[in-house]
Structure formats: structure tokens, C-alpha cells
Design a protein that fits this description.
Elements (H helix, E strand, L loop, with lengths): L8 H17 L14 H14 L4 E8 L5 H4 L3 E7 L3 E3 L10 E5 L4 E12 L18 E13 L9 H6 L4 E9 L3 H7 L1 E6 L2 E7 L6 H16 L8 E6 L4 E2 L5 E5 L5 E8 L2
Parallel strand pairs: 1-10, 3-7, 4-13
Antiparallel strand pairs: 1-2, 5-6, 5-10, 5-11, 6-7, 8-9, 8-12, 12-13
Helix pairs in contact: 1-2
Length: 273
């Protein structure tokens, strides 16, 4: 539960240090460390400190949804978090049936699979340089069929709410980039995505069915980065949001995300070593 009393500077620093230490060592935490930030501003302060402690560079960002009933409280409909290079997996194609990618997760922590469309940014974006009200399609170099692996050293991270998720870098621990989507402007509308875990079909949904679509998610991301003073370099990859949902699973599970005619992405989740 988010606090109503502002966090002190020391609390923000301590929360960030605890999250960073666990995340970057592959350790586990019993719960969210300390009080949960009461605002998104506090949460992004924690995230900024976790980013500054990261041993790997940022190569992408994830976008997640805030539940509709909490959007007024937090003053936003989405959240963002960084994708670090060590959990970036570029395939550039679909898998054959006998292929898979092995992905490390926090065994005993939070683990979920999310089918996502990935946007590649086509130009450097300086903070405040884009008026997103005029559209953002010109910033898209390419779109890909992809997957986000959500995993955290906090086993029940999502139960603490959006501010906790932001603090722990958006619950992000993997980006898989599959085949490029040629003519994405029309193909997305024609594609149904299915997520399968351990041979069970979990859900199906339209590829473009996320709130306000992939371009709406991108516009939010650019505006959020502008407020935070973050430059987005050309080539940055953006996980635009879960198409079929956030599907919790366990270590050693096997998942397949099917993108219709675009092909499949097969994944085995293993413990971090």
C-alpha cells in the first residue's frame, strides 16, 4: 500500500539501494523494502537511483498500464522502466518449432510472461523536442513481435501497486525481439496474439488491442521522458505494453507466444545463476 506521508530523502536512497543490491546480485527480498512511495514522482526518484547503480547500459524501455481505478490517484495511465543490455535478446526472426531462448528469472520472486509489440526508435529524441499531440508515427523506425519477461526479487511486487513497480525498474527483466512487422500499419490490425504456458493456452488478443494502441503508448513514453529529462537515442527499443495480459508463471516453465503468420517465440525460464 502506498504511503500518504512523503518519503524522506534517506528513505528514497535506502529503498533504491536495497532494490538495486537484490536485483543486480540475483538475490531475493521478503517484500517491498520500506514504505512504498506515495507518488509517481517519488517512485521515479527511486528508479533513477536504481538506474545509476546498474552495471549495464540502458538499451530500451518498457511501458506498463496503471489500473483504471488508480489513474486519477496517480495522475497517469501508464508507467515506464528501463531495459538493460544484459537482458536484451534480439532474434530478428521467429523460432522454428524445435528452437527456444533460455531466459534467467528470479526463482522465488515475481515471474511473468507478456506478449508485446516492440517499437524501434528512428531518431534521437531530446527531452521536450516532440509535441506528441501532433503524432509520433514519424519516430517509428520499425515494429517487431516481441516478449517482455517481468521478474523481480520482490515476490509479490505487483500487489504493492504502480509506485512499487516503478521503483523496481518497472518489474523488468527481459526483452525478446522477434520478427520485424512489415507494413505494421495494417498487419497489426490483422494479427491475433496467443500466449501459451506449459502447453496451456492462457489468452488470445488483437496485437493492436492495448489502450490507445502502440502509438498512444509511445506518445505517453515520450512525454514521460520529457518530464524526467531523459534523452531517447535512435535505436532504443520500446516494449509498448502487454497484449494478452501479464501472465504469472514459475521458474522452469516453458512458454510460446504466437503471432499468427509472423511466427512464434519460444522461451524457457530458468533460475538466475
Amino acid at each position: 500500500m502506498a504511503t500518504t506521508t512523503p518519503l524522506t530523502k534517506d528513505e528514497i536512497v535506502q529503498t533504491a539501494e536495497t532494490l538495486a543490491s537484490a536485483r543486480f546480485s540475483g538475490g531475493l527480498l521478503e517484500g517491498f523494502p520500506g514504505r512504498v512511495p506515495g507518488t509517481l514522482d517519488e517512485a521515479y526518484q527511486v528508479q533513477d537511483l536504481v538506474i545509476s547503480a546498474a552495471p549495464e547500459p540502458i538499451v530500451g524501455w518498457k511501458i506498463g498500464m496503471i489500473p483504471p481505478e488508480l489513474r486519477e490517484q496517480y495522475g497517469a495511465e501508464r508507467i515506464i522502466g528501463p531495459v538493460f543490455d544484459n537482458v536484451n535478446h534480439f532474434l530478428g526472426r521467429a523460432h522454428d518449432d524445435n528452437e527456444k531462448i533460455v531466459l534467467p528469472v528470479f526463482a522465488g520472486g515475481f515471474i511473468a510472461v507478456e506478449a508485446e509489440i516492440v517499437i524501434e526508435i528512428g531518431q534521437d529524441i531530446e527531452p521536450g523536442s516532440v509535441d506528441t499531440a501532433g503524432g509520433v508515427e514519424h519516430l517509428v523506425k520499425a515494429m517487431y513481435a516481441g516478449v517482455e519477461i517481468a521478474s523481480s526479487p520482490v515476490p509479490d511486487l505487483n500487489s504493492y501497486g504502480p509506485a512499487a513497480i516503478i521503483s523496481d525498474i518497472g518489474n523488468q527483466h527481459g526483452m525478446v525481439i522477434g520478427p520485424v512487422i512489415e507494413n505494421w500499419q495494417t498487419v497489426l490490425a490483422e494479427t491475433t496474439v496467443e500466449t501459451i504456458i506449459n502447453d496451456e493456452s492462457i489468452n488470445q488478443a488483437p496485437a493492436n488491442g492495448i489502450h490507445n494502441g502502440q502509438l498512444g503508448a509511445l506518445a505517453f513514453f515520450i512525454d514521460c521522458c520529457a518530464k524526467r529529462g531523459i534523452k531517447v537515442p535512435a535505436g532504443t527499443m520500446i516494449l509498448t505494453g502487454a497484449t494478452t495480459g501479464v501472465h504469472e508463471t514459475l521458474v522452469n516453465s516453458f512458454s510460446t507466444v504466437k503471432y499468427g503468420a509472423l511466427g512464434n517465440i519460444n522461451m524457457e525460464l530458468v533460475p538466475i545463476k
